[in-house]
Amino acid sequence: MNNFSVSDAQLDLIKEYVSHLIDWNAKLNLISRKDEHNIWSRHILGSVGFLFKYRFAQNALVADVGTGGGLPGIPIAILCADLNLVLIDSIHKKVRAVSDILQKLQLRNARAVTGRAEQLAIQKDFTHTFDYVIARAVAPVKDILGWTKHFLNCHDQKTIAHTGIDEQPSIIPCASVVMLKGGDLVQEIEEVKVKSKPRAVTIHSIIVNGLESTADLSDKKLIIVQP
After folding, report:
1. pLDDT per residue as tens digits for the range 6-25
2. Which domain holds residue 46?
3. How many CA atoms lie within 13 A of 63 on its CB side?
């Protein structure tokens, strides 16, 4: 069984987001245009599939680094209304598009910011501010960790790692960098362990029960790094 439900209102809002994303993609390359026909399986489900088995602590502040067209931040903001998200990208045109989409969706729990993660992470308004960082396939694991670890507030951990109850989603530990990546990750994980020496690194398959095909998620992993 999946441990996460999506309401009709949330699904309608995600559909509206997809429509705006495609409209903007005609003007600005937010996602690969050849992927538009896979937008639900590859981009939407690829962004939120982990929520069926894992979740963030309640009322957490989350930084989405390398958000591009608002992925995974906007779908997460729609499905997890208690969270507050800051969607970060270094390209101002993309941030302008994401801000426009957020305004049209009337999402109050997300905002978009222009900047390079490694520079924002050491600025007063951002350093040691976030409960989580999430990134979707934007760079090697060691690079993402290096750029973003200073975003994390390691002194205000709202929760423990897992519920220990099979019927409930596992809670991702606070002060974690969460990555959604595919492919062979063995070398990347070994490299980050040697070079960065994090407290913990865990890798989880993304499984959504009841799908006719999980081909687009078959090699996708949820990586949780606690610096």
Report:
1. 999 999 999 999 999 999 99
2. 8-226
3. 34
